[in-house]
Amino acid sequence: MDFGKNTPQRPGGLKQCFVSALLYCTGEMQQLHTHMQDKFFPLQLVEGCLRGISRVILLNNPLSGALILAALLLESPWQALLGMLGLLASTFTAIILGQDCEEVSSGLYGFNGMLVALLMGVFSSAGDWYLWLLLPVCLGGAATTFLSSSLAPVLDRWDLPVSVFPFNTVLLLYLVCTGTSNPFFPNHPAQPPGAPESTNHTQLHVPQLLQGVMLGVGQIFACGTVGPSLLILVAVFLFSPILAVYALLGSGISTIAGLSMSVQHSFLYSGLSGFNGALGCMVVGVFYILSWRTHLLSIANALLSAYTDIALSNLLGVLGLPASSWAATLTGTLVLLLTGKNLKEYRIPTGKVTSPEQNLHSHKQWSAANTNATDV
Amino acid sequence: MDFGKNTPQRPGGLKQCFVSALLYCTGEMQQLHTHMQDKFFPLQLVEGCLRGISRVILLNNPLSGALILAALLLESPWQALLGMLGLLASTFTAIILGQDCEEVSSGLYGFNGMLVALLMGVFSSAGDWYLWLLLPVCLGGAATTFLSSSLAPVLDRWDLPVSVFPFNTVLLLYLVCTGTSNPFFPNHPAQPPGAPESTNHTQLHVPQLLQGVMLGVGQIFACGTVGPSLLILVAVFLFSPILAVYALLGSGISTIAGLSMSVQHSFLYSGLSGFNGALGCMVVGVFYILSWRTHLLSIANALLSAYTDIALSNLLGVLGLPASSWAATLTGTLVLLLTGKNLKEYRIPTGKVTSPEQNLHSHKQWSAANTNATDV
Amino acid sequence: MDFGKNTPQRPGGLKQCFVSALLYCTGEMQQLHTHMQDKFFPLQLVEGCLRGISRVILLNNPLSGALILAALLLESPWQALLGMLGLLASTFTAIILGQDCEEVSSGLYGFNGMLVALLMGVFSSAGDWYLWLLLPVCLGGAATTFLSSSLAPVLDRWDLPVSVFPFNTVLLLYLVCTGTSNPFFPNHPAQPPGAPESTNHTQLHVPQLLQGVMLGVGQIFACGTVGPSLLILVAVFLFSPILAVYALLGSGISTIAGLSMSVQHSFLYSGLSGFNGALGCMVVGVFYILSWRTHLLSIANALLSAYTDIALSNLLGVLGLPASSWAATLTGTLVLLLTGKNLKEYRIPTGKVTSPEQNLHSHKQWSAANTNATDV
Which residues form the signal peptide (chains A, B, C) (predicted)? Predict the structure, then answer.
C-alpha cells in the first residue's frame, strides 16, 4: 500500500488517512526504502542509521529507530551521542570495506557499533562528557564491522545471522583491555548476580518486580528508567505488536528464572535479569512463523536464555566483566539450528525475515493457495 | 542369527542354546531392534532408554544398558532415579521436537540428559532425596536435547557425532548458575587435581592404584565403588570384549599420565583421573577399524585426553568447577578429524559405526572379496 | 631463474654471479626445492626443517630458517636444541600419520612443534639443560601435529590456514597442566601487562622504546636480545624486504597501542607488546596483494591484534598464563575472512601464497595481460 498514491485517490476523510499513515509506518516500511533509493546520499544514510538503531532489538523500521533514539536522548544525551558515533563509525567502515550496499543501507552494519559505543559509555567510570572516550568508541565501532564482515561467511554456511556476536566480543575485549584502573579509560566492574546480598532477605517488592519486567525491554539499550523503556516498547509495538508482547513475555519469564535462582533483588528491579530473556523470546518470534508450537519454543528459549545469562554473569562476574547479551545471542543461534521436523517447517530463511505479522500473512496465503490446489 | 527361530530347529542341547543366547545378546542386538519395531510403544521406549544408557559409554546394547542401570541402583537408588528422569526428559523432548524416530529409538537423544541428571545429583550438596532437584534435572535433560538437535547440523558437516558436548555444556552452565551457596540448589565445589596435598608425600599404594584403574571405568557414570564399576565393565564386555580391554587400557594410561603430573593420590585412587583416558581410548576403538596403527592411535589419544583433562581440571578448578568429560570429548572429536592417509582408511563413517568386532568382521570380508576380485 | 644453469652460461664476472646467487637465495627458493626432490632423504629433511623454522614468521625459505636457527643458538643453545627437537618430533609425527609428503617437506608440520618447544623452555623454571624437559617437548611437538591434522579440514572449508592455532592450544594446555609448583615440570607464571607497576611513573625512555620495536620481531621466537632479533629481521629481509618493513611497522603500531593502554614499560622495552602487532601486520602482507588499500588493512589489523593481545594477556594473566600469539592468530584468521569487495579482489588463495614481491609481480603481469586483451 503506497501512502503517496492512496491519499488523493480515496477521499475517505481523516480516519482513512490516519489508517493509511499507520499502515505506512508499521512493519518494515519497505515503501520508504524503495522510495529512498534514488534520493540524496545523506538522506539514505539517515534512514540506514535509523534502521540500524532498530536492528539492535530485532526490528527493521526507521521510525522505531527514531523513537529509540529519542528514548536514548531522554535517558542520557551523552550516551545517545556515543551511540550515534559508534553507529556512524561502523557504518562508514562497512562502506570503506566495500560491503554490500543493500546490506549497509538496511542498517546491518550499524547496530553492533552502536551497542558497543553505548555500553562503553555505561561502563566508563570517567563520568559523562569525557571526550577521550570518543576515540575507543570509534575504534570499537570499526572493529565490530570487521568482525561482522568476517563472521558472516562462517555463520552463513548454516543460514545463521551474524547477530550481536561482534558487539559482545568487542565489548568484552575492550573491558578486559582497559580494566578498572586504567589511567585513560577506567571502567566500573560488573557485579555477578548470584553474589549474596544482605538486602536479599528483605521482602520482595511486587510492584518494583513488575516494573523490572518492563525495564528489561529498556535494558537491551542499557536504559534503566521507566520513560525511555516505555518509548522503546512503543518502538517495538510500531514495528510489530506481536514482538512487543514477546518482549514483555520474555522479560517476565526471565525474571521468574531469576527468582528461582534467587539472584539479587537489585538485578530483578533494574531489569538487568530480564533483557536476555526478552531477546531470546523475540528471536523465536522473528525467525519462526507464529503458531502454538513456536510459541512454546519462544517460552523455552526465554528460559534457556535467562538461565544461561545467570550462569555467564556469575562466571564473568568473577573477573568483574558483564555477560552483556552473550546468553541471548548463543541460545538464539542454537534455536535457529534446531533440526526437529515439528519446528523446521516454521523456520523462515534468514534472508526472508520480515515482521512476524507479515510472515504470518504470507504463510497463510501460501497455505490457502496450497489447500485450494489440492482441493481441485 | 535369530534366537527365536534357532532354538526349535536345531536340538543341539543346552550348550548350543546358551551360545545362541549369548550371540543374540552381544553386539548391537539388531534383531531385538527390528523385532521391536511393530511392538507396543512403551516397550519400544524401554528398549530405546536402555540403549540410551549404554550410549553414554559408547555402547549400543539394551542389555548393557540394563546392567549399567543395575550398577547405578547398587551405587545409589537416588542417583539412578535422577538419571532415569533425565533420560526420559531428554527423550520426550526429542519426541516433541519431532526428531528422527529411528534416532530417538536407538537412544541417541537420551544419554546426554541422563549424564546431566546423574552429575547434578553427584554435585548437589542438599543430600539424597532432595525432591526439588527433580525440577532442574528435567529442565537440564530437556536442554541437552535442544543442544543435540542444534549442534548436529554443525558437526555433521565434518561427519562428527554430537557426542557428549550437550552434557558437558549444560552441566557447566548449571553449576555456574547455581554455585555453592545457592539457597535452593547448592553444590559441592570441584577440587583441582593439581592442588598440593599433604598426603601426597606418603608412599604410593599400588593395590589402590590398580583398583583406581578399574574405578576409572565406573567413573564414566560417576560410580566410585568397586561393585558397580565391575558391573559396568561387564556391560561393556557384553557389547564388545575389545572395548572392555580398551576401557581398562585407557584408564591405565590415564593413571600413568596422572602420576607423571603428580596429581593428588586421591584422584588416582578414586578413578577420577582415569575415566577421560578410558573414553579417549574407546572412541578410537569404536570409530576406527582395529589394526596395530589404530591401536597406537588409541594409546596416543588416551594420553592426550588424560593430559588435557588434568589441564582443564586445573583451569576450571580455580572456579570450583569440574572438567567432567570435556577432555575426552574434545580429543575424541579431533581424532575423528585426522587427515593422515595412514589412518583415514581405517575410519568408519559415523552412520555405520557398530561394535569393533562387527566392524573388523565386515572389513575382513570386504578385503577378502577385494583380494579375490583382483586375483581373478 | 636457475642458479646452476645461469652461472656457466653468462660469464658476467663476480657482480653478475653475486646477483644471481642473491636472486637464487631470496623468495621461496623454489629451484632448491625442485632440485632436492630426487635427493637423499636426510637432505630433504634438513631442507624441510629449515623451511619449517622460517614458517613460524610466515616465511618459506630454508636460508632464512638457517639464519633464524643461528639467532636461536646465539640467544641460548639450550632453547635452540629444544626448538629443533620439537620441530623433529612434530615432523616425524606427520610422516607417521601419513600426511601429504609435499606439505611435510615444505615445513607445514614443523613450525608449531618448534614454537611449543621453544616456549616450554622459556617458561620452565627448572633452569637450562634440565633434560627431563625433553619428554614433554617431544609429546608437545607430536600433539601439535595431531591438532594441525585435525583442524585442517575444518578451517579448509573457508580457505583458512591452520596457522599457529595448534601451538597456542598445546602451550596453554601444557602450562595449565603443569602449573607453577609441579615437582617435575615447574613453570614461571606470566605477568599481565596491565598490572600497575611503580616504575611506570618514571619517564619513558625513547631509545629503549625504539629498541623494543625491533625486539618485537625477535619476540616471535621468544628472543629478547638485540643480536638475535637483528638476525631474525635479516632472515625476513632475505625472503621479502616488504615483509621486513611490515614486521617493523606492525611492531611499532603495537607499541603505540601499548602506550595508549599504559601497559608496563618493561613490556614495551622487551618487545613483548610488539610481536603480536608485527605478526598481524605481516599476515596481511603475505595473504593480500600489496596496494594502498591492503596497506591500510595491515595497519588496522596490527592495531586490532595489539589491543586484542593486551586484552587476552590481562585475562589469561589472572591465572598466570601467557596470551602467546593468540591475538595475532585470531585477528589474522578474521582478516582472511573479510567479505568486503574492496578487499576480496586482493586476497590470495591460501594454496597460492608466495612472497609479497612474487605475488605483486604475478598480479601486475596478469593485470597487464588483461588490459592488453581489452585494448585489442
Answer: none
- And the C-alpha cell for C143? 600433539
Residue with cell 539472584: A263
B27: cell is 553386539
How far is Cα C15 from Cα A285, in angstroms, rounded to an integer? 75
Among A337, A341, A343, A347, pick the best mutation site for testing chain B contact (most B Cβ within 10 A). A337
pLDDT at A15: 80
Say if residue C321's pLDDT is above 90.
yes
Residues near C311 by Cβ (< 8 Å), separated by ≥ 6? A172, A173, A174, A176, A177, C327
CA distance A363 to A368: 9
User: pLDDT of B327-369, one tens digit each?
Assistant: 999 999 999 999 888 888 899 998 888 889 888 888 888 778 8
Could you tell me the pTM of the whole model?
A: 0.92
| Spatial contact of A105 and A156, defined as CB atoms under 8 Å apart | no
Q: Which letter does DSSP use for residue C352 in this model?
A: G
- Residues across chain C: 376
- A: neighbours with 3+ CB pairs under 8 Å? B, C
Q: How far is CA B362 from its chain centroid?
A: 24
Query: What DSSP state is assigned to residue B189?
Result: P
Question: What's the rounded Cα separation, in Å, for the pair A302 and A249?
Answer: 9
User: Which residues in B lie closer than 8 A to residue C184 (C-beta atoms)?
Assistant: 260-262
Go through B63-94 and write b for each residue having 16 or more CB atoms within 10 A of its CB, e for each that does not. Answer: bbbbbbbbbbbebbebbbbbbbbbbbbbbbbb
Comparing CA positions, the residue from A8, A50, A43 lying closest to residue A25 is: A50
User: How far is Cα A168 from Cα A171, in angstroms, rounded to an integer?
Assistant: 5
pLDDT single digits (tens) C115-148: 999 999 999 999 889 999 999 999 999 999 999 9
d(CA A220, CA A229): 9
Q: What is the ipTM of this complex?
A: 0.90
Helix (H, G, I), strand (E, B) or coil at C55: helix
- The amino acid that residue C287 corresponds to is F
B151 contacts on A by Cβ (under 8 Å): 334, 337
C-alpha cell at B43: 516397550
Q: Residue for cell digits 603500531?
A: C253
